[in-house]
């Protein structure tokens, strides 16, 4: 997207070519600075004023005819003519006129305006007249004749007519100069009195035309001067040079030797001063450096490589090891990355990402992110992975029914800005060990509280969900060491943004509450043995007090219950109640001799039971005072028994109704602290003498007669006897109304149960202050599941990853207390560096007690910012037991607390640094894999590899380099007190930089903690990957930062950076010289413009001659192309460059923080008609006089 931006002047820093102060340059003062062309032009000038005397000693003109007519002298005169000053003055006039294009304004400048252009014409004519002094046509004469006929005559006549139109008032004060035009050579065809029509109302049009044609006249003069320089070389090489000119040239050649000898005086004086007075020394050669990767022979575990071990190339170059080094058989056999993303704007999205790198032991042309943090690319395969916590305990054994579980985590204090009112259900998922697989459950509630600090998680399993069973590695996979069920709480992507705060929460205790209902599959037994609730069954076969129904199961006794409800569904209760069913029984007991009762023994509320629990082979009463069990009615609500024998109440005389739907709930409450549970209780199949826990017992307690079976025969006999008496009476008193017979008693009722269902609640708190053996706590991590021991430290809610990204290397074997060298080939394209080693890096190894700091002996990578060797001591407690990484390997980890863009091309052990033994013998880089053998073979070394070309070699300092370095030292005294000092010191040390610009950051002032930004613009070459976009390498920035930290004050902090870029696109309309080749020539002009705007390209032949680009320079550059006939229109616009940023659609660009580079494609259009001419030189977007800096 194009942005038209006004650019204000800005500090451009220091350029390499500006580095040496002018006064300290050897060529600053020369004894004789005159050039060959200057001397020849000077001779021509003398020839025009020196009189010539003939043989008779008579004055006969000047020497001009003899000397100046030669093309060598003519071309020298042309090439020494300076057009820049006069043209610059003319452009200033143009600017002043264009500010107000009316006639009154123009009249203030018309005298110098026309005079300067007429002077151009007179100079050209004078050159032409000089060329005509020779009777024989020469190349200079021919060129001048042609250029005047083709361009000059037309421009003169047109310009003269514009002069007459604009000076009709007669105010022009240079009539004498105009009169000279009448003496021009005939070739001009000058008409001093053309017939023109004066139109004063359209004077602005004539003013614009006068400006354009005036510029074309100056352009014609500049072209002639440039042609003169070309012709000089041509004419001096010809074979027909006249004798007198040849003698003059010979004299000048001899004189040149004396000139050169005289002009060495300055250089010799500087060398003497620098060496003898300042004691400066020439810098010696720097040997070339390379890194080799060695592999030991099979069976060799350790080898000490001597210092100075010689390696060689096939070409005979010898490299020697820099130091003695311990080598081992250790290899990196696994490479993994881990990235923690808590920024939703990150390309990966919130979450934890694990990566596996392959092919890292071979040098690659396709780099991968060293610390991860990116999508899968090249050798790096990235997958999103789970993170969470898990615990295992007996409370999770949940076989059936509706099961609601509430987890209350007692945690440390939440951050002040934590939103406790928010619900976090979508942030978490729950997984449980089901019978056949893991069962995922969506939490019904996840909340945090600050007072008290707590995290509450609640989830519910429906009756259709499978049973939650004990963990089985064959079903649920490896990772846990528990015989209990496992619950996993996994952090989902939606909640990962809160990971930094949540992961830091420590757990002090965990309270687990369960609410279970609808259990129907459990153990049932009566005094006769096992029974099944699938069909109606008799709970009390003996039908007498002491008859028992047993209810049991593992689930009820592995956790501390707070209450249990046994719901009994009765199958065949008497429809009219037990009082009616047992009427004969009740009457019998009321009239029984010696034990008469005034109430009914058998009523609905008469049948009661008591509850017991098996504890250590004993049946302990439940819910009773003083060790006596409470009573539970079997068929009615509790509390309706007649055990009190209170005949004054309706309870003793009135029968209570059955419970609703004939479903009786026996509700038993417990004290969880005394409830006889056993988390280690194994599953069992029934009640036996060896069982110490696992059953409840419901014992029939009342009535004392049970269901009447013992008295049934007596009652039948009593009724039969009574009926016989009635029969006798009725027979005797036949005349009276007969008395009704007593009905026979019903058989004792056999109660049956059609179904039994259980509900219960449990409540258990696990204290994390010690190693609680009843609960196991795990962290679920990308590469492992880690069990945490609570005795050592309070566990955190989630695994803690302090690093945003990390690289983990798995080593196959280690030799404790040895030294291991790992070679890293790093590619790091970064915008800026403010620390020699980045902050937030960590180096650790995996021990039995977790990750521990790794002792780094040396780090050539400077925090993985560049390629190099990292050497560290192998710790003795490094373990391959696994921990939170895959077992079987020894792991080291390199972490970064913030995301970095470092990329790797190679990771290999046993890296060895070698240097060229013949320092300065070669500055050419030794290609990859060239160093491939030992000068003296060592049987312990199997292979030698050179992954990268050699680097860093320098020839000994030349005399010019020595002078430049000493000039900077003299000028800036090797101190960085000012911004100019900083720029000069950096440029002096690093000749591969084109420009350095230092600026204060954030309104920093000297005398305070000063922050300085140092922007580097390196030299580039066309062979580079991006020659038009100069980017300093990390190595360059690191070396600059190290230099500045050494020479600067401690309170100064530096940021070394690359420039931001803004693109300049030139829109122009031209006419090409060769009609028909327009498209090809437009492509050529586009490339030339790119080069013109890229002065940092070293082999650039068409770069701008100055460090700024003015509109006149841009116009002149386009016009100077040999294939351009006319430039009609020029306009500049700026495009935001997205190299360093992903989004370039911002509304503003701060140009003084940007480096202006060329757009890839300029907008070039052309006119196809050769008659087209004229047009505007620059649009409003590129006004004359504005300066566009090419660097910041």
Features:
single chain, 1192 residues, alpha+beta, 7 domains, seven-stranded antiparallel β-sheet, disordered N terminus
Strand content: 25-35%
**Global structural class:** alpha+beta
Strand order of the largest sheet: 13-11-10-34-41-37-38
Distance between the termini: 22 Å
Largest sheet geometry = 7 strands, antiparallel
> How large is the radius of gyration?
53 Å
Q: How many helices?
A: 22
Please mark out the parts with pLDDT under 50 across 5 or more consecutive residues, or reply none: 1-9, 641-651, 1142-1151, 1170-1192
Count of DSSP strands: 54
Fraction of residues in helix = 10-25%
Shape: elongated
The structural domain count equals 7
What is the residue-averaged pLDDT? 84
SSE diagram, text form:
Blueprint: E1 2-3, E2 14-15, H1 36-49, E3 51-53, E4 59-62, H2 64-67, H3 71-79, H4 84-98, H5 103-107, H6 110-131, H7 139-166, H8 175-181, H9 203-235, H10 243-263, H11 265-277, E5 289-296, E6 302-305, E7 310-313, E8 318-321, E9 325-328, E10 332-341, E11 351-357, E12 368-369, E13 380-385, E14 388-392, E15 402-411, E16 428-433, E17 438-441, E18 445-450, E19 453-461, H12 473-476, E20 486-491, H13 499-502, E21 507-519, E22 523-526, E23 529-530, E24 548-552, E25 561-570, H14 578-581, H15 583-591, E26 608-615, E27 618-621, E28 631-633, H16 650-653, E29 663-669, E30 693-702, H17 712-732, E31 753-767, E32 776-780, E33 785-788, E34 805-811, E35 819-827, E36 832-833, E37 841-847, E38 850-853, E39 856-859, E40 868-873, E41 890-896, E42 903-909, E43 911-916, E44 931-934, E45 941-945, H18 959-972, H19 979-989, E46 993-1000, E47 1011-1018, H20 1034-1047, E48 1053-1058, E49 1060-1072, H21 1078-1092, E50 1108-1109, H22 1111-1120, E51 1124-1136, E52 1154-1158, E53 1163-1166, E54 1188-1189
Parallel strand pairs: 47-48, 49-52, 49-53
Antiparallel strand pairs: 1-51, 2-46, 3-4, 5-43, 5-45, 6-9, 7-8, 7-44, 8-43, 10-11, 10-34, 11-13, 12-42, 14-20, 14-32, 15-19, 15-21, 16-17, 16-20, 18-19, 21-31, 22-23, 22-24, 24-30, 25-29, 25-31, 26-27, 26-28, 26-30, 32-33, 34-41, 35-40, 35-42, 36-48, 37-38, 37-41, 39-40, 46-47, 49-51, 50-54
């Amino acid at each position: 997207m194009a942005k038209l931006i006004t650019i204000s002047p800005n500090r451009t820093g220091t350029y390499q070519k500006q580095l040496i102060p002018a006064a300290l340059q050897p060529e600053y003062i020369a004894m004789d600075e005159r050039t060959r062309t200057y001397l020849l032009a000077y001779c021509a000038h003398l020839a025009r004023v020196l009189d010539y005397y003939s043989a008779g000693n008579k004055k006969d003109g000047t020497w001009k005819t003899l000397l100046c007519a030669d093309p060598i002298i003519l071309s020298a005169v042309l090439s020494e003519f300076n057009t820049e000053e006069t043209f610059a003055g003319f452009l200033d006039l143009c600017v002043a006129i264009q500010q107000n294009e009316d006639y009154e304004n123009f009249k203030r400048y018309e005298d110098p305006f026309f005079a300067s252009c007429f002077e151009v014409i007179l100079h050209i004519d004078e050159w032409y007249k000089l060329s005509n002094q020779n009777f024989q046509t020469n190349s200079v004469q021919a060129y001048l004749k042609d250029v005047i006929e083709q361009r000059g005559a037309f421009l003169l006549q047109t310009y003269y007519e514009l002069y007459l139109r604009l000076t009709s008032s007669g105010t022009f004060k240079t009539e004498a100069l105009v009169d000279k035009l009448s003496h021009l050579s005939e070739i001009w065809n000058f008409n001093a009195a053309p017939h023109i029509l004066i139109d004063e109302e359209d004077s602005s049009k004539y003013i614009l035309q006068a400006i354009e044609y005036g510029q074309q006249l100056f352009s014609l003069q500049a072209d002639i001067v440039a042609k003169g320089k070309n012709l000089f070389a041509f004419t001096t090489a010809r074979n027909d040079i006249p004798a007198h000119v040849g003698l003059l040239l010979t004299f000048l050649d001899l004189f040149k030797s004396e000139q050169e000898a005289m002009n060495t005086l300055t250089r010799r004086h500087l060398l003497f001063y620098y060496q003898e007075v300042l004691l400066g020394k020439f810098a010696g050669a720097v040997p070339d450096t390379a890194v080799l990767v060695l592999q030991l022979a099979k069976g060799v575990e350790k080898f000490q490589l001597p210092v100075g071990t010689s390696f060689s190339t096939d070409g005979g170059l010898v490299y020697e090891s820099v130091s003695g080094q311990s080598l081992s058989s250790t290899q990196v056999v696994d490479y993994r990355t881990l990235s923690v993303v808590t920024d939703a704007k990150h390309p990966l999205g919130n979450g934890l990402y694990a990566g596996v790198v392959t092919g890292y032991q071979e040098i690659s042309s396709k780099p991968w992110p060293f610390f991860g943090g990116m999508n899968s690319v090249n050798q790096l395969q990235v997958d999103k992975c789970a993170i969470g916590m898990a615990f295992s305990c007996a409370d999770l054994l949940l076989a059936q029914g509706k099961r609601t579980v509430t987890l209350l985590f007692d945690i440390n204090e939440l951050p002040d800005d934590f939103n406790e009112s928010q619900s976090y259900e979508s942030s978490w998922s729950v997984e449980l060990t089901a019978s056949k697989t893991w069962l995922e459950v969506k939490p019904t509630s996840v909340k945090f509280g600050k007072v008290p600090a707590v995290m509450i998680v609640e989830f519910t399993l429906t009756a259709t969900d499978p049973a939650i069973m004990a963990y089985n590695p064959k079903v649920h996979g490896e990772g846990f060491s528990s015989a209990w069920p496992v619950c996993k709480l996994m952090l989902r992507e939606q909640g990962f943004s809160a990971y930094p705060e949540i992961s830091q929460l420590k757990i002090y205790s965990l309270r687990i509450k369960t609410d279970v209902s609808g259990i129907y599959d459990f153990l049932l037994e009566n005094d006769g043995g096992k029974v099944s609730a699938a069909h109606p069954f008799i709970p009390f076969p003996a039908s007498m007090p002491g008859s028992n129904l047993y209810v049991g199961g593992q689930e009820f006794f592995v956790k501390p219950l707070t209450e249990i409800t046994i719901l009994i569904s009765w199958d065949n209760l008497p429809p009219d109640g037990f009082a009616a069913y047992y009427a004969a029984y009740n009457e019998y007991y009321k009239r029984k001799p010696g034990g008469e009762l005034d109430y009914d023994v058998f009523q609905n509320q008469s049948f009661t039971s008591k509850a017991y629990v098996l504890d250590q082979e004993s049946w302990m009463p439940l819910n009773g005072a003083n060790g006596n069990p409470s009573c539970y009615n079997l068929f009615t609500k509790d509390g309706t028994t007649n055990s009190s024998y209170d005949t004054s109440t309706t309870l003793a005389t009135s029968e209570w109704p059955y419970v609703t739907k004939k479903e009786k709930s026996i509700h038993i409450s417990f004290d969880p602290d005394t409830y006889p549970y056993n988390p280690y209780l194994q599953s069992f199949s029934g009640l036996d003498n060896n069982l110490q826990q696992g059953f409840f017992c419901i014992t029939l307690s009342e009535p004392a007669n049970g269901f009447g079976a013992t008295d049934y025969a007596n009652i039948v006999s009593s009724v039969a006897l009574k009926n016989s008496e009635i029969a006798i009476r009725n027979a005797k008193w036949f005349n009276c109304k007969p008395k009704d017979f007593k009905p026979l008693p019903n058989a004792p009722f056999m109660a049956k149960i059609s179904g039994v269902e259980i509900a219960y609640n449990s409540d258990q708190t696990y204290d994390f202050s010690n190693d609680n053996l009843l609960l196991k706590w795990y962290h679920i991590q990308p590469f492992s599941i880690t069990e945490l021991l609570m005795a050592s430290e309070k566990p955190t809610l989630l695994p803690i990853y302090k690093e945003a990204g990390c690289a983990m290397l798995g080593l196959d074997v280690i030799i404790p207390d040895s030294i291991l060298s790992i070679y890293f080939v790093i590619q790091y394209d970064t915008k800026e560096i403010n620390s020699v080693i980045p902050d937030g890096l960590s180096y650790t190894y995996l021990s039995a007690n977790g990750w521990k700091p790794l002792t780094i002996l040396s780090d050539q990578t400077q925090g993985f910012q560049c390629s190099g060797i990292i050497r560290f001591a192998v710790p003795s407690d490094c373990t391959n037991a696994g921990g939170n990484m895959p077992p079987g390997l020894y792991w080291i980890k390199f972490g970064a607390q913030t995301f970095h863009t470092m990329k790797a091309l190679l990771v290999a052990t046993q890296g060895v640094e070698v240097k060229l033994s013949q320092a300065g013998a070669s500055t050419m880089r030794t290609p990859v894999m060239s160093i491939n053998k030992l000068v003296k073979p060592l049987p312990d070394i199997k292979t030698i590899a050179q992954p990268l070309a050699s680097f860093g070699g320098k020839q000994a300092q030349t005399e010019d380099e020595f002078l430049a370095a000493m000039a900077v030292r003299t000028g800036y005294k090797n101190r960085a007190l000012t911004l100019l000092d900083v720029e000069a010191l950096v440029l002096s040390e690093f000749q591969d930089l084109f420009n350095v610009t230092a600026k204060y950051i954030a309104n920093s002032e000297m005398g305070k903690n000063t922050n300085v930004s140092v922007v580097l613009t390196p030299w580039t070459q066309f062979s580079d990957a991006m020659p038009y976009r100069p980017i300093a390498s990390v190595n360059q920035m690191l070396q600059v930062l190290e230099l500045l930290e050494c020479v600067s004050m401690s309170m100064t902090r530096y940021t070394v950076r690359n420039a931001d870029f803004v693109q300049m696109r030139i829109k122009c309309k031209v006419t090409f010289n060769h009609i028909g080749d327009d498209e090809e020539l437009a492509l050529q002009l586009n490339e030339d413009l790119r080069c013109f705007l890229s002065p940092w390209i070293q082999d650039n032949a068409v770069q701008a001659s100055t460090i700024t680009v003015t509109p006149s320079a841009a116009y002149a550059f386009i016009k100077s192309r040999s294939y351009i006939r006319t430039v009609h229109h020029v306009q500049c616009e700026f495009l935001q460059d997205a190299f360093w940023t992903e989004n370039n659609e911002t509304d503003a660009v701060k140009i003084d923080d940007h480096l202006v580079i060329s757009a890839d494609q300029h907008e070039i259009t052309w006119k196809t008609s050769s008659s087209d001419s004229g047009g505007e030189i620059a649009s409003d977007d590129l006004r004359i006089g504005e300066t566009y800096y090419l660097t910041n």
